[in-house]
C-alpha cells in the first residue's frame, strides 16, 4: 500500500538529474529520490550518533537496517509523483538589484555571474508535488526510524545544493498516511511554534518526533550495540561524537526576530546581507569595490594581510577564497604538497514562513572542526597564495559554538542585528 505526502517548494531547489560528476547547470533540475535518501541518511546518522557515538561500524548497522545498503534494500520505498516543472525564467527575474547582490552572496560561484544570480537550472518556490511511500520489509522500528529521518530532513534540512544557506527547503503540507507510528498529522512539517521552542531551548534534538519513533530509535541502537533493549542505557548528551549529532551539547539553535519580508526573495536577501555583515566585522572604506558597502573582515586585515594567526570566522566553512590568489583552507600532510580538505559550514540557516510572516531558524552542529588534527601530518588550517603555503592559522573547536551563539542570539533580538547602523 502506497501512502501519499503532499509537498511544497519553499525556496529554490538546485538539484541535478545528472551523474555525480556532471555540472548542475548542464542537466535539468528535479526533485530526486536519491537526493531525498542522501539527506535521510545524514539525519539518521545524526539521530543515532547521540546513542552509539561516532563508531562507523555501529552507525552503519543502524543505517543498513533502516535505509538499506548495497546488499539490502531500504525498509521503505519512495517515489516522486508529479515532479514539479523547472523554472522557465532566470532566477534574477524575480529580484530587485539589491536582492540579487545578497542572494548571490548566499549562492556562491556555481549559480552566479559577477556575484549576481544567473541560472534557470532550479525548481522555483510554490511548486507542489507528492512523495509516495510504501513499506518494503523489516520490522516496525526500522520503518519508524526511516520516516523519522525523512521528517527531520524536511523539517531542518532540504534537497539539492546550498541547503545550509537556506535553499532547497521543502515542507509537507498534507498527508494520507498511517504507518509504523506515524500518521497524517505527525508527518506534516511543524508550525512556527516548533521552531520557536527549539530556539528557546537552544538546541535541536528529537523533539517533535512521535514518542513511538524515539523508542524505536532506542531499540535499533541497542540492537546495533548488541544490547538488550530493555537494559539499554541511554547515554544522552554525554556520548561523544566527532560527527554531526542531535541533542543538547551537540547543537545550538535560535529563531530570529520577524523579518521585514513579503516573500522568499526578501527573506533570503535579508539572510545574505546579515551573514555578510556578520562575517565582515569592520567598517572600513576600500577602493576596489566603490559601489558596495565599506566593510571588511577582521581575518582579512589581521590574518591575511597582517601577522595574526587566529581566525574564528573560518569555522563557518572552508575553503574561503580571497583576491590575488589567496585562500584559507584546511589541509593535511606536508605544507609543500598538501592534501586539501573541505569543511562544510556547521551553521545551517532555514527561512521559515507562517501566515506570511518570515523568520530565520538557525542551528549549528558542535562537532570537532578538525577531528584529524595533531602533528605535522595531521589536519590543520593554512593560508595559501597561488597554491603555496604561507602560514598556519588557528581555528578552535569552540569557535563554532561562539560564532553560532553570537549569530543566533543577536538575530533573536533584532533581525538586522549586524547590518543596522553600518555602511550600506
Automatic annotation (TrEMBL):
Quaternary structure and partners: Part of the Csm effector complex that includes Cas10, Csm2, Csm3, Csm4 and Csm5.
GO biological process: defense response to virus
Residue ranges of domain CRISPR type III-associated protein in the record: 7-171
InterPro entries (UniProt xref): CRISPR-assoc_prot_TM1795 (IPR007522), RAMP_III_fam (IPR005537)
Annotated protein name in UniProt: CRISPR type III-associated protein domain-containing protein
Originating organism: Nocardiopsis kunsanensis
Alphabetic keyword roster: Antiviral defense
Amino acid at each position: 500500500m502506497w501512502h501519499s505526502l503532499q509537498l511544497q517548494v519553499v525556496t529554490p531547489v538546485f538539484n541535478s538529474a545528472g551523474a555525480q560528476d556532471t555540472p548542475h547547470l548542464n542537466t535539468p533540475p528535479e526533485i530526486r529520490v536519491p537526493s531525498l535518501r542522501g539527506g535521510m541518511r545524514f539525519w539518521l546518522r545524526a539521530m543515532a550518533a547521540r546513542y552509539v557515538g561516532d563508531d562507523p561500524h555501529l552507525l552503519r548497522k543502524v543505517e543498513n537496517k533502516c535505509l538499506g545498503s548495497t546488499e539490502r534494500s531500504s525498509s521503505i520505498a519512495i517515489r516522486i509523483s508529479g515532479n514539479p516543472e523547472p523554472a522557465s525564467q532566470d532566477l534574477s527575474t524575480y529580484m530587485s538589484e539589491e536582492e540579487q547582490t545578497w542572494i548571490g552572496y548566499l549562492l556562491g560561484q556555481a549559480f552566479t555571474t559577477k556575484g549576481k544570480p544567473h541560472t534557470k537550472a532550479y525548481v522555483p518556490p510554490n511548486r507542489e508535488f507528492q512523495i509516495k511511500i510504501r513499506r518494503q520489509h523489516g520490522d516496525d522500528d526500522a520503518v519508524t526510524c526511516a520516516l523519522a529521518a525523512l521528517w527531520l530532513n524536511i523539517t531542518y534540512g532540504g534537497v539539492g545544493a546550498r541547503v545550509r544557506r537556506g535553499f532547497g527547503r521543502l515542507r509537507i503540507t498534507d498527508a494520507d498516511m498511517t504507518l509504523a507510528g506515524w500518521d497524517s498529522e505527525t508527518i506534516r512539517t511543524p508550525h512556527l511554534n516548533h521552531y520557536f521552542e527549539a530556539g528557546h531551548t537552544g538546541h535541536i534534538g528529537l523533539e517533535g518526533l512521535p514518542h513511538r519513533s524515539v523508542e524505536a530509535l532506542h531499540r535499533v541502537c541497542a540492537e546495533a550495540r548488541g544490547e538488550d533493549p530493555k537494559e539499554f542505557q541511554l547515554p544522552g548528551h554525554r556520548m561523544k561524537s566527532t560527527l554531526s549529532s542531535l541533542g543538547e551539547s551537540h547543537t545550538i539553535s535560535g529563531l530570529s526576530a520577524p523579518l521585514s519580508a513579503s516573500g522568499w526573495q526578501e527573506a533570503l536577501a535579508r539572510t545574505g546581507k546579515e551573514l555578510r555583515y556578520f562575517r565582515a566585522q569592520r567598517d572600513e572604506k576600500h577602493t576596489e569595490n566603490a559601489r558596495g558597502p565599506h566593510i571588511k573582515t577582521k581575518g582579512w586585515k589581521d590574518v591575511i594581510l597582517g601577522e595574526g594567526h587566529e581566525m574564528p570566522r573560518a569555522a563557518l566553512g572552508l575553503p574561503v577564497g580571497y583576491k590575488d590568489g589567496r585562500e584559507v583552507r584546511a589541509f593535511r600532510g606536508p605544507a609543500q604538497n598538501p592534501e586539501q580538505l573541505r569543511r562544510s559550514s556547521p551553521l545551517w540557516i532555514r527561512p521559515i514562513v507562517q501566515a506570511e510572516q518570515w523568520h530565520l531558524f538557525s542551528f549549528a552542529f558542535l562537532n570537532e572542526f578538525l577531528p584529524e588534527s595533531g602533528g605535522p601530518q595531521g589536519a590543520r588550517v593554512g593560508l595559501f597564495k597561488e597554491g603555496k603555503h604561507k602560514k598556519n592559522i588557528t581555528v578552535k573547536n569552540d569557535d563554532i559554538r561562539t560564532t553560532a551563539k553570537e549569530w543566533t542570539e543577536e538575530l533573536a533580538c533584532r533581525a538586522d542585528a549586524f547590518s543596522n547602523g553600518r555602511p550600506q
